[in-house]
Amino acid sequence: MNTSLIPILSGKSYGYINLEGVYMINPQFDEAGEFFDRRALVRKGNLYGYIDEKGTYVIPPKYVSATPFSEGVAWTVEADGAPTLIDTDGNTQLVAKDAEKVWVFTEGMAKVLTTKSDNSKVYGFLDRKGQFAITPQFDQAYPFSDGMANVRIGKNSGYVDKKGRMEISDSIMKCVSSFFRGYAIVENGNGDYGLIDSKGRLEINPQFSEIYPDGDMLIVATSGDEKNYGWCDRNGKFIINPQFRNASFFSNNDYAPVKIGNSWGYIDRKGKIVINPQFDDALSFIDNKVAFVKTGDKVGIIDKDGKYVANPQFDELPGMYMLNMAYGIPATSVNYYVTTRYFNVEKAVDMVMDNVTKEGIRGITLKTPISKIIKDFNIHERNLYGSYGATNITSAELGKNLFATFSIEGDFFQDVSDGWWGTTSVLVKNATPKALHYSLQTTGLAIGKERKLFKALADRMNLKINSDKNSATGNYGKNHIWLTLNENEIKISMTPGGKNYADVPDSTLIIEELIEDQTSAETFEGKINNKYGIVMQLLILGSDVSGTYHYTSRKSPITLSGTLDSDGTIRLEEKTGGKITGQFAGTYTPSEISGTWISADGKTRMPFVVERSNN
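Above: the chain's sequence. Below: its structure in token form.
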């Protein structure tokens, strides 16, 4: 890290000053990090880039998130992109498509967060080739240091080596820090902290309320209601007795900041006050030369005599020295991890196709009796719609960015005499679905990627995309598939098939005619029985009427054909799969159509009203 160029806030912008407080790079950035590998991460507006030590962009601002450089590389993410590792010239080294988050490299290993198929999040580690050196399996993990990484599975934590082998477990003590110079911090059941060596042996029995590594020493705080801070060696022997209200690091310097009363000053390595307490805040010295201090709401720079080399004038303490490169991680004022913006379409398709097979959806086929569906999915028959509409069977997240709903459609009830003068509906236990539906609602990173997913699903099932660009049809195994796209929803509908695309019911052809001649087509929107939303598209040529309609919940078109009399009487017959399934009978006006929908057997009648759409 270059300690001669310090990012500092002045007003609303960041620039870089030297250790005398002189601007070497004028304030111009909305965010600025420290120099690592002679590159500093900066942000202007919403984009990050990298500058050299002269303030010149060497990698232009084009990333929505990025890390500082570490071990000669940095992680970056572009809009809609996956975490991408670059070198100091901006050249791509690898792309981590399966990573949700990824951290800077330490000791050749990068901590990574992924999401499993059951939506649980697990941590693992990547090597410099982008391969999983340690497969994601941990509920928590910390970067490598001293050849080991602190990890946790469930309630058990410990330390693994670079092959993922558990070297130290926490059968007695809870491991709470990375290793640093051969030791790590552990916690007992009472919340007290101690120290172990690289073999897991206790070097300091848990007795302190806080412990922080500080070079060859440790900053410790006593337990109890009133904490006092001091320093001890690795054996727990006090070097500077706990006596201060707070303390920060010596690091490699002669002096360390301590808080006495309500003010900060500095002590030497014997605990003697060398700069009287007078500051509202104070940081460790830099290169044993100067330190940043805060008085009121302004920040200045003092030398080892406590004299200002730069009067208080800056608006914020530099964030990088608060941790003093603890645990080998670049202590920086900007993030040292990135979060993906990439929606992996192929991985999403794989998850969908795990549920949608050539035989059926979610293990249910078009020949599965409704009694088995009720039993397998623990649903009540009162939730079934009977002969109209689709019934949701189950809904769940599919990965991180999709929400899937499985539903069925069919005639599952039969009207039988109630023994008096009426009828009652009885479940036909061996009835099978007429259609299976699998709806995908996009969330998170999948929003805006619906068309890519739609096309990828069509390709995977070898479907033909229709001329409306929002639907695709074809055979998948022995069944027929309707794939539709509507804003942030994709729907897969499976019906009995075995036909070629050319044999698909003529509703497809009617849709294409309407699209090709939109000036003649009339669109009406409304409801049947004031409950079921529908959209009609009609082509009226004299007394002949043809077109389609679909339910807003389904999108699958149903063929319409009929007549329009001079007095406005309209009769439309609907067909599905070449069979008559119902009719609309009513009155047509330029602004609306209203009347009665009648089932094919004449037993069900429901009012409908549709109004002309402005679209």
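The chain has four helices and 54 strands.
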